[in-house]
Amino acid sequence: MKCIVGLGNIGKRFELTRHNIGFEVIDYLLEKHHFSLDKQKFKGAYTIERLNGDKVLFIEPMTMMNLSGEAVGPLMDYYNVDVEDLIVLYDDLDLSQGHIRLRQKGSAGGHNGMKSIIKHLGTDQFKRIRIGVGRPTNGMSVPDYVLQKFSKDEMIIMEKVIEHAAEAVESFIESSRFDHVMNEYNGEVN
Q1: What pTM was computed for the model?
Q2: Model confidence pLDDT, tens digit, residues 108-122
């Protein structure tokens, strides 16, 4: 079973913010395939569906960003998901808008949601798709910036990025060859 996790903050006020881009990709995939997060357990909203012939556990932690591991770890344990079958989608300040970067493993890079997942899984050896949101340029603090909604112009770009990231997830589910998916999907989205 594959496990696809999107990171974000729960609640209406956080919808379409930079920090919730992981949720946006999960929501896109669910809508595209007519799935819904119809279960809740271990502080997570989730569903298990068949996609491209494989069982897939889709998760959106309901813990707020900084505690994401409190949902991901127990759900993966409960459903006996191997860490090698996990992909986490999340926002990245160090990538400009319009870019995604797929990695097989790595540190949290200062991202508190990823720190929490690494802590609860006891490893950083899992796949991730980092979605560029850029850094604030007008002196705005990082917390205010990531909790700000995308502008209409930014959303035009981010809708393409969301679709591209979702296609990368689908490609991994279909092939299980993340190295090939990385080669195809890393970089700027046009």
Answers
A1: 0.95
A2: 988 999 999 999 999
